[in-house]
Amino acid sequence: MNICFRNILVISPDDKLEERVHLWVQDGVIRHCAASEPICDPDTHIEEAGHLVCFPGLFDMHVHLREPGQEYKETIQTGTDAAANGGFTGVLCMPNTAPAIDSVPIVEYILHRAQDTLTEVYCSAAITKGRKGQELAPMLELLDSGVVMFTDDGSCVMNSEVMRRAFDYSAPFDALISQHCEDHNMTEQFAMNEGEMSMKQGLKGYPRVAEELMIMRDIQLAEFCGNRRYHVSHMSTQNGVRIVREAKQRGQRITCEVTPHHFVLTDEATAGYNTSAKMNPPLRRPEDIEAIIAGLADGTVDCIATDHAPHALHEKEVEFSLAANGITGLETSVGLSLTHLYHTGRLSLMRVAELMSSNPRRVLGLPAISISEGQTANLTIIAPDEQWVVDMQRSRSKSLNSPFGGALLTGKPKYTINRNKLHMCDL
């Protein structure tokens, strides 16, 4: 790999850098990053990049790779291929595999399978054995094996005493505990957001308070157990944003993430029993979208994550109430975020870089990325003003379940660079 991006705009939150430079990457290392002309080797490919922007490599902290056990939906290889094609140089995989990621051998298997991929894979592990919410997983052993977060994602740890033990047990290691916040007693057999659309379609609703109750409970437990680190996954409601904001103002170590589909779509997208728009948490209402975007702008929300959840065709093309929850998201995240946050004037490119690159790594305790001479090249190159139409048939994912097929977006990833590999994004 030997490429020089001439006159590219580099935006790097951790370097506090927003500057147009000539960026030369050779053999996986940044050789030149300055306004002066580099003296490149004769075999260097020169890319005129005045229309491009360079971010630190994007990181998605909520991805379902499905392997082991559900390889018919996605594999580590196809999932990381989709991630690289969407501009991501790192992902955190969720533990609701089959079997669940609750033991060291499974962590080692996943990390081994991903050791040569352009996109780095980090593991979260289950809080409880088998994600059953009853007995804690061997957290210390899992931390030693490389796990960076604990969550029973896909399920909520409903038992308050078990959740308290997780906070207490993790305290000496300051481990990050995350939660899929859902009071299952209120959401059993739900199909979509509870409201006018669920009544019109005759479907069981998931009330927003069922998410908010668990956020409040866990924040109180985290405080009671000594101000433990706590992360709210895929937050979707107006009051959820308010609750997290107030906890942060009190000095609690709370972080949270939101997904592009929750700041772009409302439950109106489920009209006609559209299973492509069926997910958990469900799509909410316009006031929730406005609150989420306000939270992204004012710092309440820390990260944008995709909750990439691939499903096979036969799991989606069924009755709405029986369809699997979730959509793919790795290859549409950049376009949706730029279209609906940057091009609407709500967020700057610097803030987008924080939300999609530096903040996820900070939340997980991973090393920051520096875009400077002599550093390893871990970069995402985007064309922020390029328009394109989402064509799901071009996806590198094994599954194509997305409500965004055919959407016109502005802003797309162009190159993903990491581990001395360069991928030209094909979207």
Keywords:
single chain, 427 residues, alpha/beta, Urease, subunit C, domain 1, TIM Barrel, 2 domains, 8-stranded mixed sheet, 4-stranded parallel sheet, 13 helices
Explained architecture:
There is one protein chain. This protein is α/β, with parallel strands linked by helices. It has two domains: 2-54 and 372-424, Urease, subunit C, domain 1 (Roll), CATH 2.30.40; 57-364, Metal-dependent hydrolases (TIM Barrel), CATH 3.20.20. It contains 13 helices and 18 strands. It has helices spanning 76-85, 104-113, 139-144, 160-170, 184-187, 196-201, 208-224, 238-249, 260-264, 286-298, 313-316, 333-342, 349-364, and strands spanning 2-12, 17-26, 29-34, 45-48, 53-56, 58-63, 88-93, 120-125, 149-150, 177-179, 192-193, 205-206, 230-232, 254-258, 303-304, 379-389, 408-418, 421-424. The strands form four sheets. Strands 1, 2, 3, 4, 5, 16, 17 and 18 form an eight-stranded mixed beta sheet that branches.
Summarize the structure.
The protein is an alpha/beta fold. It is built from 13 helices and 18 strands. It is globular.
Sequence-ordered SSE layout with sheet pairings:
Elements: E1 2-12, E2 17-26, E3 29-34, E4 45-48, E5 53-56, E6 58-63, H1 76-85, E7 88-93, H2 104-113, E8 120-125, H3 139-144, E9 149-150, H4 160-170, E10 177-179, H5 184-187, E11 192-193, H6 196-201, E12 205-206, H7 208-224, E13 230-232, H8 238-249, E14 254-258, H9 260-264, H10 286-298, E15 303-304, H11 313-316, H12 333-342, H13 349-364, E16 379-389, E17 408-418, E18 421-424
Parallel strand pairs: 1-4, 1-5, 6-7, 7-8, 8-9, 10-13, 11-12, 13-14, 14-15
Antiparallel strand pairs: 1-2, 2-3, 5-16, 16-17, 17-18
